[in-house]
Amino acid sequence: MVEVVYQKEDGEKYKGREDITKVVVASDVDIIPSNAFRGCKNLVDFDFGGSKVSKIGSRAFYETGITKMKFPDSLKEIGLYAFAYSNLKEVEIKVEMIDEATFSNCHSLEKVILKEGVKSVKFEAFQNSKNITTFLWPDSVKEVGSDVFRGCDKLHELAKSSVQEEVIEHLKDSNLPPLVNLCRLDGKLEEIKRILLENPEAIKVRLKSVLTSSILASNAQS
After folding, report:
1. Domains of the chain, with CATH numbers?
2. Is the model's pTM score more than 0.70?
3. InterPro entries this protein is in (predicted)?
């Protein structure tokens, strides 16, 4: 077991080091650069300490053994593929943008909490993180890229259940006009059409959940 203190001048010094198990960040560090700990497969404990890190570079924790991380309030930016193929089990984060493929292929990831303030989730951000079963999505999110949830099999099943429940709820309202009003799911209507065909009495359905829509749209392409 090797524990290290990450200094401001260290850059990619520890890239690929499989003997490192714990890292503590020095207080004057403000950026974790790209590839800083890439390939540190036995790194499981990462402590930001008293640092004010504002940016995590691309692929900084790519293929690491990290299972959990408490992100500092100072964090503003995370680069693409930053945690791809890591062992993260839970993510709770507040940054304005989740970049492309940031948490893709995190096969141990089960729970994601995006806190209020997150505005954009980019292309393939959680792609193939197939064991996610909990995903909390704030109202602040205004932009969702394509394939964000592609390959998130368990989340896809939950989304379909959510849509079915919403259809049933609307069927109970006899005062709705004879109009089927569907959100377009980025042009991917297959799942909604199937559900409607199974419920021919449907007269109006409105799907308001951006999250549910995005999940179904992503997986319709799988």
Report:
1. 1-148 (3.80.10.10), 155-220 (no CATH)
2. yes
3. LRR_5, LRR_dom_sf, Surface_bspA-like
